[in-house]
């Protein structure tokens, strides 16, 4: 989930909860104020009744208005003064029958009951006031409040979608520049102009980091190029000295064997130097050029070049090749196939089988042979090789680096005395 989406979601949820709690509190506050106003009106009516009784020593006439009713009932003892909320008619005897009474049966009202003493007799006075207008006013206020809440939430949503996206635009620009950064081109990241200090600091730190990466890359590249070039000279000198030594007629058989071992060591050292240099170039994306490569003829060409080792080990080759044009650097495709086939030949058994299958989805190379003498999960690591291998231990590591460079999948399995390497061209 994107940070922008999560922030918007949390902001909206928090706003809804805050507004919901605030609306509940607002509802009860407004209701309390309105009910308090009705109670004040009932108190005024109570005071007028008490003044009328004290002045005239008799009860006023009961009243039955649309929104207010006054009634009196004889009582044996004085009742406790109290406010109550009820629904229905406040005085059954004074309410006429018919539609008006049916409507009044559902009407909420606020009632004040208090005792009145007149001519030696106690009465229970009841003053009721309809709360219908209060409820209507409260409903109107809550509808207006709900509308304001929806308007506020809509404004927050639009602000998050438009304003915040614009605020975060420098961050996305920096992120896009980092994704497009390429060591091969060595172009510095473009500066992002923004008034937000955090984004300016991020942009500055990113540009400093990429500049340091380019600097380190140049130093490493120069070192590997120079080291590879400088190693060729002493290797050539050693090789030429060995050529002179092997021509000495006084050398015995044992000397010839030692010199041949030196030749082999120099050859492996030269091959190791070239493989390490190739790995470094692949890791640094120095083979950016790609072109459609016809893989089937290239496989047949590599097998023709490896005809001597195939014949010397009496290997049976089986090919099942579909026509496939693979977008890849031609040189890397050649290296990929060469290392795969050499590995399959080198680790094969005498008179064994070599099977190559090419499909649109991938390439499979199988060879017969005993199980590995090391952990199969490390087969594509550098300098991992069997006890009888004559290679440098970098062949399959180069294969993995090429597959990683083009996002190909790579796997190894061993079953029924068959080593199988699968490359998926669709990742």
Blueprint of the fold:
Elements (H helix, E strand, L loop, with lengths): L2 H54 L6 E2 L3 E8 L6 E6 L11 H7 L2 E11 L2 E10 L1 H36 L1 H12 L16 H50 L6 H31 L7 E4 H11 L1 H6 L3 E6 L3 E4 L1 H17 L6 E6 L3 E7 L26 H11 L3 E7 L2 E7 L3
Parallel strand pairs: 7-9
Antiparallel strand pairs: 1-2, 2-5, 3-4, 4-5, 6-8, 9-10, 10-12, 11-12
Helix pairs in contact: 1-3, 4-5, 5-6, 6-10, 7-9, 9-10
How would you characterize this protein structure?
- By secondary structure, this protein is of the alpha+beta class.
- It has 3 domains: about 5-165, no CATH class; about 195-285, Methane Monooxygenase Hydroxylase, Chain G, domain 1; about 290-425, 2-Layer Sandwich (Heat Shock Protein 90), CATH 3.30.565.10.
- It is built from 10 helices and 12 strands.
- It has helices at about 5-55, 100-105, 130-165, 170-180, 195-245, 255-285, 295-305, 305-310, 330-345, 395-405, and strands at about 65, 70-75, 80-85, 110-120, 120-130, 290-295, 315-320, 325-330, 355-360, 360-370, 410-415, 420-425.
- Helix 5 runs antiparallel to helix 6, helix 6 (about 255-285) packs parallel to helix 10 and helix 7 (about 295-305) crosses helix 9 (about 330-345).
- The two termini are about 25 Å apart.
- The model is unreliable at about 90-105 (pLDDT under 50).
């Amino acid at each position: 989930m994107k940070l922008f989406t999560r922030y918007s979601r949390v902001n909206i949820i928090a706003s809804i909860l805050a507004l919901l709690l605030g609306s509940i509190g607002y509802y009860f506050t407004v209701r309390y104020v309105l009910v308090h106003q009705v109670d004040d009106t009932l108190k005024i009516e109570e005071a007028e009744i008490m003044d009328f009784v004290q002045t005239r020593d008799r009860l006023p006439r009961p009243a039955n208005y649309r929104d207010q009713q006054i009634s009196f009932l004889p009582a044996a003892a004085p009742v406790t003064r109290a406010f109550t909320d009820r629904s229905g008619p406040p005085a059954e005897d004074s309410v006429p029958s018919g539609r008006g009474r049916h409507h009044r049966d559902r009407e909420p009202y606020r009632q004040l009951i208090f005792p009145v003493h007149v001519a030696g007799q106690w009465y229970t006075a009841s003053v009721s006031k309809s709360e219908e207008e209060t409820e209507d006013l409260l409903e109107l206020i809550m509808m207006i409040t709900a509308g304001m809440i929806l308007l506020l939430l809509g404004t927050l949503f639009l602000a998050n979608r438009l304003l915040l996206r614009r605020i975060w635009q420098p961050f996305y620009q920096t992120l896009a520049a980092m994704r497009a950064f390429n060591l091969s081109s060595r172009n510095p990241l473009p500066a992002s102009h923004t008034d937000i200090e955090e984004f300016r600091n991020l942009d500055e730190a990113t540009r400093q980091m990429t500049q340091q990466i380019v600097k380190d890359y140049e130093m490493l590249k120069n070192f590997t190029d120079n080291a590879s070039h400088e190693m060729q000279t002493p290797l050539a000198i050693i090789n030429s000295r060995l050529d002179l030594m092997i021509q000495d007629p006084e050398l015995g058989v044992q000397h010839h064997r030692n010199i041949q071992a030196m030749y082999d060591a120099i050859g492996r050292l030269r091959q190791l130097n070239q493989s390490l240099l190739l790995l470094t170039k692949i890791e640094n994306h120095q083979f950016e050029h790609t072109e459609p490569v016809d893989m089937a003829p290239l496989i047949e060409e590599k097998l023709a070049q490896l005809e001597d080792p195939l014949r010397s080990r009496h290997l049976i080759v089986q090919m099942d090749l579909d026509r496939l044009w693979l977008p890849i650097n031609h040189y890397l495709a050649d290296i990929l196939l060469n290392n795969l086939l050499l590995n399959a030949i080198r680790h094969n058994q005498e008179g064994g089988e070599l099977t190559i299958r090419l499909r649109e989805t991938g390439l499979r190379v199988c060879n017969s042979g005993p199980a590995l003498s090391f952990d199969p999960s490390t087969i594509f690591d550098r300098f991992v090789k069997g006890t009888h291998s004559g290679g440098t231990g970098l062949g399959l590591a180069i294969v993995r680096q090429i597959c990683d460079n083009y996002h190909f999948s790579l796997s190894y399995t061993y079953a029924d005395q068959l080593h199988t390497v699968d490359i998926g061209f669709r990742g």
